[in-house]
Design brief:
Amino acid/polyamine transporter I, 3-stranded antiparallel sheet, 3 strands, 2% strand
Length: 464
């Protein structure tokens, strides 16, 4: 094992420089996107833009679902879950970034799976990646359709709003480069942040929660420590975990960064801000709303504030869905055109493959959004089925691959090796337990009418 691979992952990556040769006017190195005459330059994203893209990938979904998960778990366990999962998600994002700098030919998490486990692991990882981001893209569409419902006063069938949401998300995702999307992520992030802040201020001004009975005694439902069933508890924990687990989407962005070594800086800024915002916003909303918190949480402060919040935040919800569709489409796009001239040439094949994959991802996301139109269940499903192995298990394996000699090293190295094996074990538990829990919750929701039949006109998105 080389010396540079033995460096601790939290330190800046000390990987070898990419071997670079010049063939004519084209730069040939290990990066998936080359630079040279006649090639469209995809490596145009600065670290600040990257940090904002990361923020938009993570922030919009989590901040809308964590307050309802707090009710299930209780304030104290909920806060511990936020801090604990965000720490692990941040660490695993850094592991992936250092591994990618050590092996710059990896465009996606599937490429990393191929390197450590061969073709079978690559294909399994690729499927999990697509499943994860198709599901969270569906959650973005649910968010947009919920906003349109709220703003229109439910003037037409919810399913029609879902179609409109899918079209909006697809159009926003159609730009080929993350650099082009980066500019709208600034506005998207600002709109969601302001919308959530409006709700946070709004709930503090109410005498009692907007969804609670406005006269007479009522059960508030605030608990420091709650006592949920296993299915409800693991679903809530999976929802909180999923709120910061989309770090595998950082890797395609990293491949389009001007300087991939700045990845660590972008991740630290993003995840630090996200953790602070999640903890503060969710605790305040839960403190003032108790069990009457809505999911998505923008509906927690009453009809008027709900309309204002959704009016401000609809751009951000649309951009979030667009990023998820873009990431999943970009994965297939690169898989199909990799090592061909069409990857970076403005040919008919290039554009046909790009728009074909984009539309396919959007259509599948729309179908899922119509089938499971409850926001937190969608995120919990994505967290347990796909993000647990992608964001926890595989990073543990990647670290072990690059530090294979640690198991026979010093005691400190052996402990680090053992902790990464434990990380893989946590991912297995969350995958099995979380999937079981959310399936039970979805089945119960269909039985009690919280979810209506697929493609119905009922508005289920505000169920908590």
């Amino acid at each position: 094992m080389s010396t540079e691979k033995s460096n601790d992952v939290i330190e800046p990556a000390q990987s070898r420089e990419s071997i670079t040769m010049m063939k004519g006017n084209v730069e040939c190195d290990d990066e998936i996107f080359k630079r040279g005459e006649g090639l469209e330059d995809f490596r145009t994203v600065g670290w600040i833009h990257a940090a904002v893209i990361f923020l938009k990938l993570i922030f919009a979904t989590g901040v809308l679902t964590i307050p309802s998960a707090m009710y299930t778990l209780g304030a104290f366990p909920g806060a511990i879950n936020v801090l604990g999962w965000q720490f692990l998600n941040t660490y695993c994002a850094l592991v992936q970034g250092q591994f990618r700098n050590n092996h710059p030919g990896c465009h996606s998490i599937a490429d990393m799976g191929n390197l450590v486990g061969g073709r079978i692991v690559k294909e399994i990882t690729g499927v999990l990646f697509l499943v994860a981001f198709i599901i969270v893209a569906a959650s973005g569409m649910v968010g947009v359709s919920t906003a349109l419902n709220a703003l229109s006063g439910h003037s037409v069938c919810t399913n029609y709003f879902s179609i409109i949401a899918a079209i909006m998300v697809t159009v926003a995702a159609s730009a080929r480069k993350f650099e082009k999307i980066a500019w709208i992520t600034w506005a998207g992030f600002a709109s969601v942040f302001i919308a959530v802040f409006i709700v946070v201020v709004g709930v503090t001004t109410l005498d009692r929660p907007a969804a609670a009975p406005q006269e007479g005694p009522f059960e508030f439902g605030y608990n420091v420590i709650a006592h949920p069933t296993f299915a409800a508890g693991i679903t809530a924990a999976s929802t909180i975990f999923c709120s910061g687990a989309g770090t595998s989407a950082f890797l395609p962005v990293m491949s389009e960064m001007k300087n991939p070594k700045d990845y660590k800086k972008a991740v630290n800024w993003c995840m630090g801000f996200v953790t602070a915002a999640y903890l503060s916003f969710s605790l305040v909303v839960y403190w003032y709303c108790g069990k009457w918190v809505a999911s998505p949480s923008l509906g927690s402060a009453g009809p008027l504030i709900k309309k204002v919040a959704y009016g401000v935040g609809i751009l951000g919800l649309c951009v979030s869905g667009a990023l998820y569709v873009h990431v999943s489409a970009k994965y297939i796009f690169v898989r199909i055109l990799r090592n061909s001239r069409h990857l970076q040439a403005n040919t008919l094949v290039h554009w046909s493959v790009w728009f074909g994959t984009l539309i396919a991802m959007a259509v599948i996301s729309f179908l899922i959004a119509s089938g499971v139109p409850i926001f937190n269940y969608l995120l919990s499903l994505a967290g347990s089925i796909a993000f647990a192995p992608l964001a926890l298990g595989l990073p543990g394996w990647l670290w072990i691959y690059d530090h294979a000699d640690y198991y026979k090293g010093t005691w400190s190295q052996k402990i680090q090796y053992g902790l990464h094996i434990l990380l893989i074990g946590i991912s297995i538990f969350l995958t099995i337990g979380g999937t079981y829990g959310v399936i039970v919750q979805i089945m119960d929701a269909y039985k009690d009418g919280s979810i209506d039949s697929a493609f119905s006109c009922a508005d289920n998105s505000n169920s908590s």
